[in-house]
Amino acid sequence: MRMTLAEKILARASGRESVAPDEVVVASIDLAMSHENADLVRKSFQEIGVPRVWDPERIVIIFDHRVPAESEKTAATHKAIREFVRAQEIRHFYDVGRGGICHQVLAENGHVWPGMVVVGTDSHTTTHGAFAAFATGIGATEMAGVWTEGKLWFKVPSTIRIEVAGELGPWISAKDLVLHIIGKLGADGADYRAVEFDGPVVRGMTVASRMVLANLAMEMGAKVAFTPADETLASYLAQRTGRAFAPGDLHFSPDPDARYERILVIDAGHEVREPQIACPHAVDQVKPLSEVGEVLVDQAVVGSCTNGRLEDLEIAARVVAGHRVHPRTRLLVIPASQQIYREAMRLGYLDTLIEAGAMINPPGCGPCVGVHQGILAAGEVCISSTNRNFIGRMGSKESGVYLASPAVVAASAVAGRIVHPQTVWQEVKS
Amino acid sequence: MTVRGRVAARLGDNVDTDVIYPGRFLSITDREKTAEHLFELAHPEILGRIQPGDFLVAGKNFGCGSSREQATAAVKYAGVGAIIAVSFARIFYRNSLNLGLPLLVSKDASARVHPGDELEIDVTAGVIYDQTTGESFAAAPLDPRAVELLQAGGLVPYLRKKYAA
Ligand code: SF4
Fold this sequence. Notes:
heterodimer; A: alpha/beta; Aconitase, domain 3; 2 domains; B: alpha/beta; Aconitase, domain 4; 35% helix; binds iron/sulfur cluster
């Protein structure tokens, strides 16, 4: 049938044999996720005037952007959502202390399955493409429409395929790879498009690392992004749901002769030799670390739906072990979920980080969204494992945010300036 | 569907949603009130210049970044009648249709109309006429679904009519 994965999933969800780019289809929605902006959704939903949501089992609500409530206004928002959740009998509700960042919570609780159509009132809903789901962000009013009808119109996107060959060198992570790709394609390089990441490097990644790729694909405008539905994914899901799928299932993979708008082949070993840094104030202002120059750091952040998972905390702990965070710098660490928090505690990562002088913040978005827990003053510089560095994103419009891998963030916290993790690593050995 | 107004401001490429509506004001959920913080950190001068019905003109990828509908609401409730750009980020585009704010995709108009110009825009036909210079530009045609939403005044009135009226 020559369809890409985006086309296949939309065809299935709209009851068609096949679809092609630029066609408009109406697809049924398998999962609808919201965070605190569920309050806006609720308001639009009540304005529409339908008494009950279409399917309370398919709605998931997770508090993460402002947890615990940082203001009376937020407390009132949380309260209104809790009441709505109760009244509509929405079972999948993750309150303060029960979940964490929405994208991590959906993933680790097995809410997302290959082939699903997932919408979320959060732009980084693309993250769930790591589960071979067609997952995309929508606005609050649009979500009110989904709560009403359980379906949504989509223009079928054309697909860019990105095949990553070669090998990632030491200290080079999924974050460096995807920042490099964003730097290459630009902030609108995948606008309205689907992206399929594949190739040996992607297939060799953990699910956590694949989520980094799909998460950041948003920053080049992608509507959805996918990584392969292979054995690695099947075993991740089997552990969490007790259900498995056949990794060869063609429902969850593009046809071998699918038509792509563009195929990009990247030799990771050759093209991404150094850690990559996105400089202020755009995610596509990407430079290899050696070209960034001397940048002193006031705050370093390891966390977010991009890089707040166990493997991220592990590498941060390994880098800072035996060191102290530099006196001019503060290191904030935010596990992406309660589950990750506990695991990181059990494995001793948090203790290592705290010993080095890090502050552990509660699971949630924290300073990533610029509301609380780590706001920057004018003139301050932050290096962060998050996904956006827009003007004023983390505080003052005169602050600057550099985006990097958790290893670079941790090393920079120790050095007090942006450095290659190798520098810190060598010191400890010598 | 024709709208008339003046170009209030011209912006560059990749104007992101944090620039349009800073994250620190996301706890505001009254759509009308969002307008007070339009461009507050990056371009505080623009808000005072907007007269009801005025237009914004921008480069490519306007509205990239977050899914926050407040970015669209702030533009709309500040009185902006339509935005013309080379391209829009997809969530912003959909949010605008859903709130009934017309968007026009036109590379030529985006390059050639200037702040202060008086425009007449036929949204459904995709024609932008600059009364000040006498030039006329074509915008990309809207799909029928988008026209339906704009004519209804947005998704809420559209669905209210369909389900609850
Ligand atoms: S961690 Fe940051 S990017 Fe991720 S959902 Fe929260 S605010 Fe958005």
